[in-house]
Amino acid sequence: MSGNRCAVIGVGQTEYRTKRRDVSIAGLVREAAARALADAELTWRDIDAVVLGKAPDLFEGVMMPEAYLADALGAAGKPIMRVHTAGSVGGSTALVGASLVQGGVHDRVLVVAFEKQSESNATWALSTHPPFNASLVVGAGGYFAPHIREYMRRSGAPGHIGTLVAVKDRRNALKNPYAHLKIPGIDRAMVESTPMLWEPIRYLETCPSSDGACALVLASEKAVTGTPAWVQGTAMRSEPIFRAGRDTVDPRAGRDCAADVYRQAGVTDPRREIDVAEVYVPFSWYEPMWLENLGFAAEGEGWKLTESGATALDGDIPWNPSGGVLSSNPIGASGLIRFAEAALQVRGMAGEHQVDGARRALGHAYGGGAQFFAMWMVGTDRP
Amino acid sequence: MREVAVVAFAQTRHSAVDEGLSEPELILPVIEEVRRASGLRTFGFTCSGSCDYLAGAPFSFVSALDAVGAWPPISESHVEMDAAWALYEAWVRLQHGDVDSALVYGFGKPSQGDLRQIMTLQLDPYYLAPLGLDHVSYAALQASARGADRAELDEIVRRSRAAGRANPYALDLPDPEGDAFAVAPLRPYDVAPPADGAAAVVLAAGDLARSVCERPAWIRGIAHCMDSHYLGMRDLARSASAAEAARAAGAGKAQVDVAELHVRFSHEEPILREALGLDGASAAATEINPSGGPLAADPVMATGLIRIGEAARRIIDGAAGRALGHAASGPCLQHNLVTVMEG
């Protein structure tokens, strides 16, 4: 890892729900932030700076909301920044917060990401008609479905693999008190009985629309309180959406980003050396796709890992024990939740979905046309 | 902190009307220009600033990445803020010590919409935005609270527009005249004219900066601060967050030769001069907005970055020894960033 040491010392999450009518946007973010502060046993006064992340402003209709949310986040009289890197934004927000500590600028940084999807309609916001671009009017599922079909063609994966992921992640969600979708008794037959939305993605193979916020308190080495999750590696990578010849199924930016994080963390065999991963899987098929992209499986082999049960909570490399994006999706926060759950695992504070003895965890987020990537490695060992 | 400097700066010739260029087309030439000026083709980090609402579409920064030619994939991030904050993020990233250069850019096409309508959306969505209070109206509240002197405001606009006419990148605007109000007490010419435009800056650390630039503009201090959002909770006649940012950036440690201020309304200039410590005994020695400032062209989301770039340019040119670049955001100077640079 570059720069000064940085650790996660507080995690706060709201319950993720379809509609949080009981709180304003300010109330929502404050709830997560207050829980993160309580976890770190700190107060608002202890925070030097705030970093706020969320997906497009059109999702709520509040432009550059850091101005409005400054008061709720205790940022009046302090520096606050707003990050926006599409779906990867939650991850990027954590990385910008960590950067402030790694760069020696601040000792304690509050990182907050949110989405209150019930205030607007994300698929509408994703389907506008800008003057210089074609509008696909398809939302995210319609955009990614062809990439999934191409993965199936290349790898020869059987059609039920996505179903397995949908069942596995929702069963994990039953153990997570914050998770949005809780479907007792979910099984393959139930997933396969739901309508086809975008071939091959069925209704229960896609992520929900959630209201929710997530927050972290990050600290420099000298400011650590409580149980730290040490940041062992951080990286961002982006590639152009319209570059001819880029591989949207197995994006180079994702591979490069992972390689950078593994190098910093000293990981050469991710399957063996990482104990648990929280990976951005908004559509079930992205588990096998990212297993390959992140080097947990060879090309064309990711689906076999999923099928073998290796990524289940009791498998040898659990992916998304929290239930993942498939179970809770406040879009702008979804990446930060991955990063936060990774930290909870190595702090031993993940409750019922704790992976026993987890010492090293990967947090991952992606966005745009599978072109923006943000990742970090956290662990019990100080780098 | 690690020594980091502005080593190259470029901006478009800002246009008050839509010239039919897409955002990537606006950005491409300025990125090429800073690549040429710095001799650097690739960068350790890239960060940009823009606002989706100007394009009326989500992810306006996604296609902008096409102009960067981000292949092989680059280490890159984006702030939904004025690109001055992208520069701040890049400066922080360079403090880690593992990369030595950063590309920063910002862009805006306010010609695509009605800025007065759009800016209402930056307010508290439950209690303020429904009032329809636009940015000219709340600026007028601040001008009233300040008790701004009309003759002083007229002189600020006259000076800014004259400087803008001498600046090939700014708009060509006549001396202010007329007694109509935009929103009293502000006249139309007190309001920064929105323009389509983009800007880019290259930051470099230590020896790399010295090797690519004869006289780098070393960043000696950079800091930002947010005030409360609610206008009723602030003394609108002053800017506490600007004063705090200036203090944290060390602006008052020595004489400032040139200050480029993000003045979107003429009355903001005296408020900022006071907050940044540019009034007082040595005030006459500080040249304010020699580029004409935003009152001569306001390419929204690039305007703050351009202030840093214009201030840096005067150090790189040898015209100034110590310069200050200021950026602002939010209603009534809610959020302020100050960069202090030296030759």
Molecular structure report:
The complex is a heterodimer of chains A (383) and B (343). Chain A has 383 residues and is of the alpha/beta class. Chain A has 13 helices and eleven strands. Chain A has a domain at 6-121 and 209-223: Thiolase/Chalcone synthase (Peroxisomal Thiolase, Chain A, domain 1, 3-Layer(aba) Sandwich), CATH 3.40.47.10. Helix content of chain A is 33%, strand content 18%. With 343 residues, chain B is an alpha/beta fold. In chain B, strands 3-2-4-5-1-6-10-9-7-8 form a ten-stranded mixed β-sheet, with helices on both faces. The model of chain B has no long low-confidence stretch (mean pLDDT 96). The chains are: A alpha/beta (383), B alpha/beta (343). At the A-B interface, helix 2, strand 3, helix 3, strand 8 and helix 8 of A face helix 2, helix 3, strand 3, helix 4 and strand 6 of B.
What is the structure about, briefly put?
The complex is a heterodimer of chains A (383) and B (343). Chain A is an alpha/beta fold and 383 residues long.
Mean pLDDT level of chain B: 96
Strand content of chain B: 15-25%
Q: What is the percent of helical residues of chain B?
A: 25-40%
Please report the number of helical segments of chain B: 11
* CATH level 3 topology of the domain at 6-121 and 209-223 in chain A: Peroxisomal Thiolase, Chain A, domain 1
**What coarse outline of chain A follows from CA principal-axis ratios?**
globular
Compile the SSE list and pairings.
The complex is a heterodimer of chains A (383) and B (343).
Chain A (H helix, E strand, L loop, with lengths): L5 E8 L11 H16 L8 E5 L12 H4 L10 E4 L5 H14 L5 E9 L5 H4 L13 H17 L5 H13 L14 H5 L3 E3 L2 E2 L8 E10 L8 E10 L13 H14 L4 H4 L2 E3 L7 H8 L8 H7 L15 H4 L3 H17 L12 E8 L4 E8 L4
Chain B lengths: L3 E8 L11 H16 L6 E5 L2 H4 L4 H9 L7 E4 L3 H12 L6 E8 L6 H5 L15 H12 L3 H16 L31 E9 H7 L4 E10 L13 H10 L8 E3 L7 H8 L11 E2 L14 H14 L5 E8 L5 E8 L1
Parallel strand pairs in B: 2-3, 2-4, 7-8, 7-9
Antiparallel strand pairs in B: 1-5, 1-6, 4-5, 6-10, 9-10
Helix pairs in contact in B: 1-3, 4-11
